[in-house]
Amino acid sequence: MAREARGPKEGDFITIKSYKHDGSLHRTWRDTMVLKTSENALIGCNDHTLVIEDDGRRWVTREPAIVYFHKHYWFNVVAMIRDNGVSYYCNLATPYVLDKEALKYIDYDLDVKVFPDGEKRLLDIDEYEAFSRRWQYPPEIDKILKANVLILVDWINNRKGPFSKEYVDLWYSRYLELSRHK
């Protein structure tokens, strides 16, 4: 019983739900395998994972991806393992919360994409500005998000955490190992 209260353990599958600032459901990922949980972070893997959009559209992820969530940083990282190298998709979002239903966070529209050659692109600035006006994001949110973009870019430039090849290799190997035992 004590195990359940502490949350998912390595090899368990969880659901991930992203919401918008107004509380509406944005996107759901079913069956993300948990690779590691710690006091502040959760690492998982999506591999041919069912994704359900807010409009009901469904699709399946094409390649394995290591996902990284943290309880103090306002971003999460998806490292997509492709034939031409690792691409990253980073969502500017609230730190995650985990309950019995799912890992949950609020997606704040801005994204940073990192290509296998290291090129970085800040995406969806127009979407962020439109939603910011529509839902009147408080100035503190804007300030926190801008500060976290700087932290994120520093991590990318210095290949810190999920942005290092060793990290992706380690966690993908662990995923393959756990998958063989399922």
TrEMBL record:
Pfam families: DUF402 (PF04167). It is an enzyme of class 3 (hydrolase). Residues 22-160 form the DUF402 domain. It comes from the Bacteria. Its EC number is 3.6.1.15, 3.6.1.6. Its cofactor is Mg(2+). Mg(2+) 2 binds at D109, D111, D124, E127. Keywords: Hydrolase, Magnesium, Metal-binding. InterPro entries: DUF402, FomD-like_sf, Ntdp-like, SA1684. The active site is at R27. Mg(2+) 1 binds at N91, D107, D111. It catalyses: a ribonucleoside 5'-diphosphate + H2O = a ribonucleoside 5'-phosphate + phosphate + H(+); a ribonucleoside 5'-triphosphate + H2O = a ribonucleoside 5'-diphosphate + phosphate + H(+). NCBIfam families: PRK13662.1 (NF010183). Belongs to the Ntdp family. PANTHER family: PTHR39159, UPF0374 PROTEIN YGAC. Has nucleoside phosphatase activity towards nucleoside triphosphates and nucleoside diphosphates. This is Nucleoside triphosphate/diphosphate phosphatase. The lineage of its organism: Bacteria, Bacillati, Bacillota, Bacilli, Lactobacillales.
